[in-house]
Amino acid sequence: MSIQNSNLKQKIQESYSKSLESNNKSLRYAESIGYNQNEINSLPVHSVENSFGCGNPLDQIPVEQGSTILDIGSGAGIDTLLSAQRVGESGKVYGLDMTPAMIDKARQNALQAGYKNIEYILGDAEQIPLKDSMIDIVTSNCVINLTTDKNKVFKEIYRVLKPGGIMVISDIIIDDLPEDILNDINMYTSCIAGAMSENQLVSAIQKSGLKDFKIIKRQTIDKLLTSLCSCSSLDISQTDIQRISPYLDKIASIKFTARK
User: Fold this and answer.
1) Three-state SS annotation for the chain
2) Is residue 230 predicted with pLDDT exceeding 50?
3) What is the reported pLDDT for 89?
4) What sign does the dihedral 233-236-239-240 (CA atoms) show?
5) For position 152, what pLDDT does the model report?
6) Is 191:202 a contact under the CB 8 Å cutoff?
7) Residue 70: beta bridge partners?
């Protein structure tokens, strides 16, 4: 990877801030990645239109009332709002994002939805500003691929989880993409070039101390999802889509779990 880490975070912030202004997706996009109509209808429309995920992390995952959830890369808030419904008034949800515009949008959406059990925090997944062993469930949706030090992110997840706590992540994995794609910063901010292979993912999770890793859902990225974009489509041109089309079978959206 020849992309300089120092430029990446600034580029990602700029890309996702800009996306809030002009990248409102159809509600059909949320359905295509796993949100059901009841979930969509229960949320402020802007939280759904400004979702940039590749799955629905907490779908089919048991969540007890009173639980504490951390959503890494919470964006405009779609997963924090759904989490707030699941944990109830006695629970707590933290949304962590490094982009100020996303934090502002999420707070607006939470206010509109009337949830008081969500706290949005400006911060970095590689240095989570929370205490040790305070989270029951860590979730994230198509964000870890954007981070510059994946090993550090999983170690931070391990640190903040309570003993027995679980991680439930939707993200992208790749396999043998060409160097010109891997070294393209627009492909990085669009959740492709920074993604890990499955072997790299397994290794990073094992090094963190997390155990019982399991992939519970896998979906190959088809042409429709690529054109809608599995993240910030502002950075993917039609030429980029044509470049990556031959490799769609090497890009997958997965949901995986592990526990402390």
Assistant:
1) CCCCHHHHHHHHHHHHHHHHHHCCCCHHHHHHCCCCHHHHHCCCHHHHHCCCCCCCCCCCCCCCCCCEEEEECCCCCHHHHHHHHHHCCCCEEEEEECCHHHHHHHHHHHHHHCCCCEEEEECECCECCCCCCCEEEEEEECCHHHCCCHHHHHHHHHHHEEEEEEEEEEEEEECCCCHHHHCCHHHHHCCCCCCECHHHHHHHHHHHCCEEEEEEEEEECCHHHHHHCCCCHHHCCHHHHHHHHHHHHHEEEEEEEEEC
2) no
3) 95
4) negative
5) 98
6) no
7) 94, 138
pLDDT recorded at residue 32: 82
Strand order through the sheet with 211-220: 118-122, 92-97, 68-72, 135-141, 161-174, 251-259, 211-220
How far apart are the C-alpha atoms of 157 and 126, rounded to whole Å? Answer: 9
Reading the block at residue 8, the tokens are: 């990446």
Question: Strands 161-174 and 251-259: what pairing?
Answer: antiparallel
- Chain segment 235-259, per-residue pLDDT in tens: 566 777 778 888 888 999 999 999 9
**Nearest CA-CA partner of 148 in 194, 183, 187, 102:** 194
Query: What is this structure's pTM?
Result: 0.93
The 10 Å Cβ neighbour count of residue 148 is 19
Question: Does the pLDDT of residue 224 top 50, yes or no?
Answer: no
Q: How many residues does the chain have?
A: 260
Q: pLDDT digits over 78-93, tens only?
A: 999 999 999 999 999 9
Angle between helices 78-87 and 100-113 (to 10 degrees): 40
Tokens in use for 255?
A: 């949901």
Type of residue numbered 66: G
Written as six digits, the tokens of 179 are: 């160097």
Question: 45-65: per-residue pLDDT in tens?
Answer: 989 988 888 999 999 999 999
